[in-house]
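Quarterly update from the structural biology core.
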Amino acid sequence: MRWPKVNDSFIPLGLLTNSGINARVCLGVTEMTAPKEIRSKYTEVMPNVYELVPNEEYHASDGLSKTTICQIHESIALYQMMKASPQKPTDPMVKGSAFHDLVLLPEEYKKNYLVGPTKGKATKAHKKCVLDHPHKTVITSGVSNDIYSMRDALYNNPSIKKILGQKTTLREVSIWVKDPITGLTLKVRPDLVSDGVIYDLKSTIAPHSRAFLHSVYKYNYNVQSALYQDVALMNGMKITNFVFLVVGSKPPFLTAIYDINLELLQEGRDKYREALERYSNYLLSSDKWNGLSYGRETVTL
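Predicted structure, tokenized:
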């Protein structure tokens, strides 16, 4: 099934204006959708769009994100397990968050991160530094060197420097909407929004295009692109594209700018719509089967 299929009498769901998939623009959905605790603590820069929400609070808040939607697509049981026992941030996650803040919100980086006294984490000096600064995220000098080199590489690319230097951008904002088809709350956290384009920073060991295509499938980047654009459009924002700003995480810190074609994008949209439909049906059904299909399937090449 091609998603979404929306009855015209219900809502003209706009998807990717000017993309060729569906040129109709979504009606502005501006009801207060963000959780109450978010609305009470953070600045709403436009309807349902909040700035400076910490990662931890964003992930803990109500709403289905790209990560949780992909979990549901694998199995509702996996989503329930991960929700009941949230994963602690891994070292790559911490490095990625520090890199994003350094590039996009340097003042927040200065406020929230501290470079430890050693190159490794397994030293007494590092552990003491963590204990002495409980309100900071302590990173090693090696991580610090890497993320500064990655930032410098981005700014050495003239095209990326121009994008990052734009003043009229939303940076690391969080958006909540009600999906008009299922009624489920969705949330996304775009890195940059400027002139109708969502930009996303990606660090990777292999920034070349063929390797990045592998990452698109491995990490569901096409789901992210479709979901982020659709959520923004559901919220009445004028979005025309989603672009990845890519930098190598190791020397020589190569950079690239990628978007994905309409076929990959539609695959991502189909995948997230299928997951939402599955979860919506699960919530409404008396049969609370949360595993893989319990019917017989034929496995083919």
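Residues 1-30 have pLDDT under 50 and may be disordered.
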